[in-house]
Structure formats: structure tokens, C-alpha cells
Amino acid sequence: MLDLKTLAQVHREERDGRGNVLMADVNGAHVTGRTQSGRDAESVVFDFTLDTPSYFFPFLDAAVNATVPDIRVKGRKVDAWIIEEDGQVHYKVRKIWLIKEPPYFPLDLRYLPDGSVRRVEQALVREHPEAAKESGHGPERGHIS
Questions:
Q1: How far apart are alpha carbons 15 and 90 in whole angstroms?
Q2: What residue spans define the domains of the chain?
Q3: In this structure, are residues 94 and 104 in contact, taking their beta carbons and an 8 Å threshold?
Q4: Could you tell me the strand order of the sheet in which 11-15 lies?
Q5: Which residues partner with 129 through β-bridges?
Q6: Tens of pLDDT along 28-75?
Q7: DSSP H helical segments within the chain, as ranges?
């Protein structure tokens, strides 16, 4: 989860079907949370402070190497930035679509070593009335189409 104004990372959760868990809360450079390496494993708590505030590293490419295709959100075309990263341990390639309005991350594809693709789509269920005022959108239900 990112701060909507600064895009600073404030919370992250990762879970898989084998019981591996990462839960982290970030407040600037201070990071707290827990990991678990399987269903029967005990949680390991962490609490540390980084030298600089935390950020979500794939966004670095947004400023450097992103492509800008159209994507349909709430029934209309909007510009999206596609960020690609490779060389990670858990997947061969990851592609993240970013847009300037909710849901901000409409699509995330991870191409896994076994040849499968993990696809995560985010949809706007409802927009907070204050956010709707700022963005110029009404409080409506929406989805990626």
C-alpha cells in the first residue's frame, strides 16, 4: 500500500499457497513487521530503521524506462505506464501497469520460472468521497474492462 500523495510505501503483504508470509509497515525509514517461512513455521518479527526512507523499487523505472500504452479503466481509455523488471529470484519478469487515478495499479503480471503467469488485477470498488472531489470523479463503482 502506498501513500496516495507521495507514493511512499506504507504497508506491504505477501502470501503464497505454501504459508510463506511477509507483512511490513513502513513509516519513513522505520520498518516493522513479520515473516513466516511456511504454514508450520513460527513468525519472525523485525523492527529496523533504514538509512533513507523506503520506496517501492519498481517505480524507479517509471521515470526512466516505462512505456505508455492505453488501458481501459471504468469503461474509458487512460494512459498507463508499464514498468518491467527482471532478474528476480521468484519470477523471470514482472510487468506492472500504473495509472494516475484509482485503482493506480490496475494490472500486475509475474512470469514465473515454471512457465505460469501470476496475474493480479485491482479494481476500484468505491472511491472515498474526498478523493473523488480531488480527482474530479464522482463516487462510483468501477472496474477494469
A1: 13
A2: 1-56, 57-145
A3: no
A4: 11-15, 20-27, 30-37, 44-49
A5: none
A6: 889 999 999 988 999 999 998 988 776 665 555 444 445 556 666 667
A7: 59-64, 129-135
| 22 beta partners | 14, 35
d(CA 110, CA 120): 9
Alpha helices in 83-128 (DSSP H): none
- Closest CA relative to residue 58, chosen from 114, 116, 12: 12
CA angle 99, 103, 107 (to 5 degrees): 70
State how far the Cα of 90 lies from the Cα of 27, in Å rounded to an integer: 26
Q: What number of CA atoms fall less than 13 Å from residue 97's CA on the CB side?
A: 22
Q: CA-to-CA distance for 4 and 26, rounded, in angstroms?
A: 14
For 87, phi then psi, to 5°, come to 80, 20
pTM score above 0.70: no
The percent of residues above 70 in pLDDT, for the chain, comes to 67
Residue 140, classified by CB atoms within 10 Å of its CB into exposed (0-12), middle (13-18) or buried (19+), is exposed
d(CA 56, CA 120): 17
